Amino acid sequence: MKGRVAILWLLAAAVACTGQLTWRQIFPNSTNVPEMRTDTVVGYDPNGQRIYLFGGLGQDFMSDLWSFDLATSNWTRIHGNQATDTTISPRPRFSIIGGFYPQGQPGSNDGLFVISTGEGINKVFYNDVWAFNVSRGEAVTSWRELPSVGDVPTERYGSAGGVHINGTALYVTHGFSNRRFSDTLRYDLQTLRWTSVFGGSSEYSATEPHPRCLMGSTMVGPESPLFFGGCLSGGFTGGPCPAIDSWFFNSQSKWERLSDCAAARKYSGLAPWPGVADTAVMFGGDEEDRSIIANDESAVGEVDFVDTTTGKWRRLLATGINGSLPVKRAHHAMVAVSDGIIMFGGEAATGGFLNDMWILTGDPDNAPSAGSCGPNWFLFMHLHGFFMIVSWGILLQAGAFIARYFRVKDPLWFKLHQIFQISGSILSFLGIILVFPGTRAVPNFAHGLIGVIILIFTIQQLINGFQRPHKEKDVEPPKKRVYWEHWHKWGGRFFLLLSAINISLGVYLVIAPVGVIVVWFLIFAAWLLAYIGFEAYGLIRAKRE
Fold first, then answer.
1. Which pLDDT tens digit goes with each residue over 1-34?
2. How many CB atoms lie within 10 A of CB 211?
């Protein structure tokens, strides 16, 4: 059996030497393997040449611990699930952050498989830190909960981060429990203390990652978490789900956005590419969602590489031994080993949990391209934004502008005013309808709440316009008409200003392309200058007269 394993590894090495990125399935040498599951956590022990795997979600919530010997292709079950194993260990959970810390504790020769966060039974969320002690050559069958002191993170799941093979800290960033998070925290594995290294951002930030969860992530450097996409809507925030942006925490402890390239997704797998600094590889992820109108899905065999020093992604194609490729999947685990990337489990795009293992080897610089960057990504919330810019940013503004400055063109001004206000209101209602396919919660964030208030005013203003008290020519208008005019005019002006503010929030909320943001603010500036110009002209004319 060992001879067969050696032949397979030699074959993989031979393929790698050709420079072709290649997937090869790893077949364990026994039927004693982990159950099919998603959202597990893995770590690689470079000294023991073993992979450690903990927890996940399968038929039930899991807390079992396994090791895989890369030399013999054998799985070993170290701990069972808590339902059948009385050993002290982390509670069953999934969507966990962790990794392997080769240095172990100060003064010792041990390594630690470290895990934190996750979601457990009955929607219980965790922020505890556990370490499984691994001596060189033999695993000590016990878990130990590490102290949680300092800037302890809020309980959460769906976070990004981990432990880099050359690092001394566990990173946890973003995630979700009762709300979306955007903070970044560092757990020092030598002093056993949490430190906040980034306090968080707003869902309207133009320079920092928005609150989110369910991203693909890895540690691209000892102090540099990297993540791609995820879900931004729900949990008191709004935004795309799935998202297309990617970020990494640079050496200045600041988040830096990378180029957009691969298809939008959540639940993808990422790992640092071995032997190449500041480089990571991504595979798979869930690229489908009810909120999507268009999303160029990844090609069969596509793997995406990023160089954080240049900020650029590349879409590449990998082949398979005898044409065999891993099925498209999401919720899987990936980890870097000495000569490639190991992938385990997940959920197939066609449905069903997995427990297969694959290794990706080769040279990305010699791999063929899977396509150009600049993906075709368009969501219902993008179409919602387009309708709102046209309605509130152009048509309704034009109707109010005509009513303010062109009353001398009677009755033309009134007819144009009606046309613009009615057509703008109809487009506004359509825009409201279009946002629902991408909404995952009530609009309990600023942009959504302001939008609801504006919607109520729009309905009221339309009804108010059709039921206005009429005035007779050359007769002093009644008080009811005077009050109506004050509300109709000043209320309209206030809500036009409020809508412009809300559109400005919206273009950042949906992570709109720079071109869209520029176009909107040019429209906003044009109206602002037009109002200032006409008001100034009116004052000058009145002074002359």
1. 444 444 444 444 444 445 789 999 999 998 999 9
2. 26
